[in-house]
């Protein structure tokens, strides 16, 4: 295991790292920092909670510290959510505290006045969400012609949120001669297209299987009727070991509804989702961090980017219909080597989603049979066993109708939903990795096209 001293980092950064309490780099940091310091384009793929931010922030800070200053941003980090942008900004300030560098964070949901004032004063590092960045570009408040390092963080999430056209516009607004870093936990086909079009001979680093869950997270599933889910959750929260719990719902209204139900049961809870103002979201996060509320109920806007210490449990109140989303959700616990638990409340109409999750994990999720609200019917066959149906299509029920549940998001260009059909799903997912060269040994050069 390498130490930070062996990665080529400057003394001011090493001092800041030590002050943050970090002793040894994570695998993604060990493998990504040296080539980024060498000026290479890089695609980094690692599961959530493995230190991807430091993997690009540390070499970015060192590179900028050795370059001439400019009035316009010299590094641009684009992230999908306000919370993640704010977290990246805080990390950059912490790591760069002993360097004469400035930075700011811009995102929507708040007045742009202070953001514009910071840009006018001049910043070295700009962290931004796509929408607000393009707004300020169009208004002439920010220039990107001095950007020498472009970072796309959680790039797959930006694609899920429909930001791909915005990302392409941003890339066209920065100089062609630049260093481009792309970090993600999963690698859909569109990422390969971005890499092919906008990166030059990138290093590929994949330190864990994409869409894999941390080994420190114990995963369990409760088979329960949909109407019994609130009662089961309240029952589970009777366990004092569930000290800091992040609960995911499929919809924003569902998050608010569940939060009200928990409060009626005298369980301290707050909700966070896209319909909340930024002040409301910040207040809910701070209440959760300080322990003023025990439960934070979130839609998937919080599936990535929330860096909250000591989340003891993640609960999938609604099982996600995209298996990669499941991985990102449960990655909010068991971070930085700590242990955590992920509980899923699975209604009968969601069991097909559970099979898809098991397919991408490559194993069964432990079923808890002893609870007060069991649903009828047992768990389906293991995901590894092929099902007698056409690949990529859900099988009919015995009454001839399709299974109930939310519709699946279709991939761009057709081709049906992801994660279907056990071995076929794994082959399809592996094909995406092959397209990026992520099955080659880390650090090995891969040629374009």
């Amino acid at each position: 295991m390498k130490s930070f001293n062996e990665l080529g980092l400057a003394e001011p950064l090493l001092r800041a790292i030590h002050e943050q309490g970090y002793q040894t780099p994570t695998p993604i940091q060990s493998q990504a920092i040296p080539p980024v310091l060498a000026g290479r384009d890089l695609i980094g793929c690692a599961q959530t909670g493995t230190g991807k931010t430091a993997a690009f922030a540390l070499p970015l800070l060192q590179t900028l510290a050795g370059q001439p200053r400019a009035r316009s941003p010299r590094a641009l980090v684009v992230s999908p959510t306000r919370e993640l942008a704010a977290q990246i900004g805080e990390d950059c300030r912490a790591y760069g505290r002993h360097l004469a560098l400035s930075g700011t964070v811009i995102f929507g949901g708040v007045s742009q006045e202070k953001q514009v004032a910071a840009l006018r004063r001049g910043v070295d590092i700009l962290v931004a969400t796509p929408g607000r960045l393009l707004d300020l570009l169009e208004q002439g408040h920010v220039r990107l012609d001095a950007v020498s390092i472009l970072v796309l963080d959680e790039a797959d999430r930006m694609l899920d949120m429909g930001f791909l056209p915005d990302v392409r516009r941003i890339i066209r607004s920065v100089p062609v001669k630049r260093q481009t870093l792309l970090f993600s936990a999963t690698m859909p086909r569109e990422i390969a297209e971005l890499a092919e079009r906008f990166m030059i001979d990138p290093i590929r680093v994949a330190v864990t299987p994409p869409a894999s869950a941390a080994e420190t997270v114990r995963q369990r599933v409760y088979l329960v009727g949909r109407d019994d889910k609130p009662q089961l959750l309240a029952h589970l929260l009777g366990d004092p070991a569930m000290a800091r719990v992040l609960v995911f719902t499929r919809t924003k209204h569902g998050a608010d509804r569940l939060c009200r139900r928990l409060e009626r049961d005298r369980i301290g809870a707050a909700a966070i989702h896209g319909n909340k103002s930024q002040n409301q979201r910040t207040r809910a996060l701070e209440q959760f961090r300080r322990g003023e509320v025990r439960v934070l109920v979130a839609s998937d806007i919080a599936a990535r980017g929330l860096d909250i210490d000591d989340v003891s449990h993640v609960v999938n109140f609604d099982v996600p219909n995209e298996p990669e989303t499941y991985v990102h959700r449960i990655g909010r616990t068991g971070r930085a080597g700590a242990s955590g638990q992920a509980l899923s409340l699975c209604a009968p109409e969601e069991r097909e989603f559970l099979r898809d999750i098991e397919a991408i994990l490559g194993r069964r999720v432990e079923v808890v049979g002893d609870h007060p609200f069991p649903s009828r019917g047992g768990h389906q066959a293991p995901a590894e066993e092929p099902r007698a149906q056409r690949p990529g299509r859900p099988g009919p029920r015995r009454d001839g109708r399709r299974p109930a549940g939310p519709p699946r998001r279709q991939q761009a260009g057709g081709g049906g939903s992801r994660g279907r059909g056990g071995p076929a799903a794994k082959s399809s997912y592996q094909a995406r990795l092959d397209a990026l060269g992520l099955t080659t040994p880390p650090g090995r050069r891969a040629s374009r096209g």
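Residues 217-384+387-420 form a domain with the Rossmann fold fold (CATH 3.40.50.300). The first helix runs from residue 11 to 20.
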